[in-house]
Design goal:
Blueprint lengths: L2 H14 L4 E7 L7 E7 L3 E6 L3 H16 L7 E4 L5 E5 L6 H10 L5 H19 L18 H16 L9 H15 L6 E3 L8 E4 L2 E4 L6 E3 L2 H8 L8 H15 L10 H26 L3 H4 L2 H14 L6 H10 L8 H8 L4 E8 L15 E4 L20 H8 L2 H23 L4 E8 L5 H16 L4 E6 L4 E5 L2
Parallel strand pairs: 10-12, 10-13, 11-12
Antiparallel strand pairs: 1-2, 2-3, 3-5, 4-5, 6-9, 7-8, 13-14
Helix pairs in contact: 4-8, 5-6, 5-9, 7-9, 9-11, 11-12
Length: 486
């Protein structure tokens, strides 16, 4: 479904609550196909979500109501459309735990305030795992009700097919590797798994508001072992938590957990090293699929962090009982994904890149090569069209005659000021949160006059207003490309 149709669904659902939106703004996507929007009304704001995966939506809506009724810190679902492709939630803001981690790393390391936030997150996690598990309808879980032996094999094979095999320089025997996977899954699946498993419990899914934590994106939850979510949080590769700090946080988690569950009785320490491996391998599979195959740059950027963590873990916990898997992990350190302290800091300090396009709606929307979902698309077709004037037929929106024509129209100035307000709001926010990409596109009928004028004008305006960002300008129909580096 096109963005305009999705926004109409969001609008209709908002109106059903008796609220009239002032703005509906897209929110940058991550690794999923879900579309997110912030709806600004006269009195408040909400988050709108659209996804055609109705089973996944049903899982989220079921879990969300259950957790909210139990008093767990999740957004409240405010409205759902009839076919369950679209729903509205309370807006808890954009600040997340990972943003606090980034700021702390830029200051030289994880500060005490960030470590306290991790302790809070682990305390909440124990509640989700034990209290949230009670009477939860796992029949709605998607794609499976339980993280069992088959699910473990699925994660290991995800790593094999999407990370190992695309690297043809890695030499391995697949039959022996599959044997190791079977043995690994046989053991790891013995971990008690009658708890709620969040599945993607990591710092980007933990919102910070008024020094309290709130939790999102649990639609992949299912019954599972305790270790997996602890590892997902503490071994999130870009968070770069020192092992000594991880060890202390794991000890804190076990103390909290022991109020309801004995860590010794569920063999928490016994299974912990295996779930560290499993999560790191699964993450590499995800980075391979989203990065190497789908060409999403921010996933490719994460690969060296995951390889570094895997290498360090393997040095202290070698897989001597899994020789073919150990053989592959040993070879991974030879891959050309360098990561040094300087490159880590340069990643954190990297400039925001804003790509500005002009295009023709007749030819389709511009491609998004950043992997971040596209950003803003402004439709210029409601404005006066210089292309209808004979003297402008061979001109473009870069020619002074067309510029003078458009600048004489009051609606053009109104449109331009609205665009500036929307775009600058996102840029300010993206810079603060260390986001790497934003795309702003202007479309008209032929991609020659109005779209070119607005793309060029916004490019020049941003070059002056934000000298610290990197700008790219593409006039797609005119085949003109420009770049500006501060």
């Amino acid at each position: 479904m096109q963005t305009i149709e999705i926004q109409q669904n969001i609008l209709d659902l908002t109106l059903s609550l008796g609220l009239k939106p002032r703005k509906i703004l897209p929110i940058a996507e991550s690794g999923s196909a879900r579309k997110y929007f912030r709806i600004i009304t006269e009195t408040n704001s909400m988050i709108g979500t659209y996804s055609e995966n109705k089973e996944e939506n049903e899982a989220f809506l079921t879990f969300s109501k259950h957790f909210h009724d139990l008093g767990l810190n999740v957004p409240e679902v405010l409205a759902v459309n009839d076919d369950k492709t679209c729903y509205l939630q309370s807006d808890l803001g954009d600040d997340n735990l990972f943003a606090h981690v980034q700021k702390s790393l830029m200051a030289g390391g994880l500060g005490d305030n960030v470590i306290e936030l991790y302790k809070k997150a682990l305390k909440h996690l124990a509640k989700f795992q034990y209290i949230g598990n009670q009477n939860l309808d796992y029949g709605k879980a998607y794609p499976t009700e339980r993280f069992d032996r088959q699910a473990i094999l699925d994660d290991l094979n995800y790593f094999k097919y999407y990370f190992v095999k695309p690297h043809e320089e890695i030499d391995f025997n697949e039959t022996r590797l599959n044997r190791d996977f079977d043995t690994f899954a046989d053991f790891a699946s013995q971990a008690p798994n009658d708890f709620f498993m969040y599945r993607d419990f990591q710092s980007r899914n933990i919102l910070v508001k008024d020094n309290e934590l709130y939790f999102i994106d649990f639609q992949g939850g299912r019954k599972g072992p305790l270790n997996y979510d602890v590892v997902s949080l503490l071994y999130q590769v870009k968070a770069q938590i020192p092992q000594s700090v991880r060890d202390k946080l794991v000890q804190y988690y076990k103390e909290v957990l022991s109020q309801n569950v004995s860590p010794e009785e569920v063999g928490f320490d016994l299974y912990q090293p295996y779930f560290v491996y499993l999560r790191l391998l699964q993450v590499l599979g995800a980075y391979g699929f989203r990065g190497l195959i789908q060409k999403k740059s921010h996933f490719i950027e994460s690969i060296p962090y995951a390889l570094k963590e895997l290498k360090i873990w393997n040095e202290t916990h070698p897989l001597n009982d899994y020789p073919e898997l150990q053989n592959i992990i040993s070879q991974l350190s030879t891959l050309n994904y360098p990561l040094t302290l300087n490159s880590q800091l340069s990643t954190l300090h990297s400039k925001l890149t804003v790509t500005i396009n002009s295009f023709s709606f007749r030819k389709g929307y511009p491609d998004d090569f950043s992997g971040n979902g596209g950003g803003f698309v402004f439709d210029c077709r409601a404005l006066p069209n210089p292309g209808r004037e004979p003297e402008f037929k061979t001109k473009t929106g870069r020619d002074w005659e067309v510029i003078d024509y458009l600048m004489a129209k009051p609606h053009v100035h109104e449109f331009l000021e609205n665009v500036k307000g929307i775009v600058s709001q996102s840029i300010d926010n993206y810079i603060e949160r260390h986001f790497s990409n934003l795309m702003v596109s202007f479309g008209c009928t032929g991609g020659q006059h109005r779209s070119v004028f607005f793309a060029q004008t916004i490019y020049e305006w941003l070059k002056e207003k934000y000298p610290e960002i990197h700008l790219k300008l593409n006039h797609i129909e005119r085949k003109i490309k420009e770049e500006h580096n501060a």
